[in-house]
Specification:
The protein is mainly α. The chain is built from 7 helices and 2 strands. The protein has a two-stranded antiparallel sheet with strand order 1-2. A hairpin with a 7-residue loop joins strand 1 and strand 2. Helix 2 packs antiparallel against helix 6. The longest helix is centred in the first third of the chain and has 24 residues. The radius of gyration is 19 Å and the shape is globular.
Length: about 150
């Protein structure tokens, strides 16, 4: 083990490896379908939550309503998503995925997400909260740091 690797925490190494491999799967899915990252995240969320409302998708993605409309419109035109009016209120729409998450290239991403959730199920809530606090603190600190331009 190199001196540098020895100084890095096991959590940092494991997280970096997990994210590297998941990002590789994300890139494969994007390339296979000609999509961008947020499209893939949106499609997976819709596929896992059939009939999701655009407002729920907006909250999940952390973007504006106009941004969600643009994404959904684009993916509906590509026959990746489908939009249906609510039978009880035609002002409301629901979004459905037209992809099967059990097939490639989607299977790779869902395998990572499912494995992560299964691993979390075996970890106590106190440890999960501690690790989440460390990651949140690091993210906030990095986001607040001035960029090196």
């Amino acid at each position: 083990m190199t001196a540098l690797a020895h100084d890095i925490s096991p959590i940092s190494l494991a997280l970096a490896r997990y994210l590297f491999e998941r990002t590789r799967c994300l890139a494969e899915a994007r390339r296979a379908m000609g999509l961008n990252d947020i499209d893939v995240v949106a499609i997976i969320h819709v596929a896992r939550n059939p009939g999701v409302r655009p407002s729920d998708l907006r909250r999940h993605l952390g973007i504006t309503g106009a941004g969600v409309t643009t994404i959904v419109d684009r993916l509906v035109r590509r026959d990746v998503l489908r939009r249906e009016f609510d039978p009880d209120d035609r002002r409301v729409t629901h979004v459905y995925a037209m992809v099967d998450l059990t097939t490639d290239p989607w299977r790779c991403l869902t395998r990572f997400d499912d494995a992560f959730e299964a691993a979390l199920a075996n970890v106590g809530s106190e440890l999960q909260e501690s690790v989440a606090a460390v990651l949140d603190t690091a993210t906030r600190s990095a986001a607040l740091a001035p960029s090196a331009s």
